[in-house]
């Protein structure tokens, strides 16, 4: 340690660990603790050196406001407690607020349909990520839910569209289908069907009638072409 470090520690001890006779009656609290560290202790004991709120503009504002003083919307202030104590109090209030909605929503949700998208071997150590780009869209005019997604591995050139009616008791035709981006974007008829194949980088609904996709040329070379295409659902 340098002399500067020793001086810094000595000044710290001198400032924060002076004897405090007024604390002698408190078990184990014979010295003033460091004023920042006391807020970070995970315990319910009162702060040894609580902050001085005199002149605080926010507290003065609350005292002078008859409407805000007793408002249930303001979180109570605990000037004698640490931040850990306040954090636990706030978490308890938030959990209580969220419990009822969670119960109601949980009881109202049930499985409408189950579709098997792919199967993998149970012997594999790591499960590959085959499901990508899930994007949800709700057509309020027709009361339909849509899910756009792609499947990796052997179907990178396809985008899948899942469609369900918002009324789970009703079904719609072609509940799930796939659109393949092959060679339909070729500039001329002379190009071979294998020369220009595209995979989907991203896909979103543009509106109720149109899907926007970002395509990437699948050939292994520099300067791969990117295409922004809009496809009508029809």
UniProtKB/TrEMBL annotation:
Residues 136-234 form the Anaphase-promoting complex subunit 4 C-terminal half WD40 domain. One of its GO terms (cellular component) is nuclear periphery. GO terms for biological process: anaphase-promoting complex-dependent catabolic process; cell division; protein K11-linked ubiquitination. Keywords: Cell cycle, Cell division, Mitosis, Ubl conjugation pathway. It comes from the Eukaryota. InterPro entries: APC4 (IPR024789), APC4_C (IPR056358). The keyword Cell cycle applies. PANTHER family: ANAPHASE PROMOTING COMPLEX SUBUNIT 4 APC4 (PTHR13260), ANAPHASE-PROMOTING COMPLEX SUBUNIT 4 (PTHR13260:SF0). This is APC4 protein. It comes from Erpornis zantholeuca. The lineage of its organism: Eukaryota, Metazoa, Chordata, Craniata, Vertebrata.
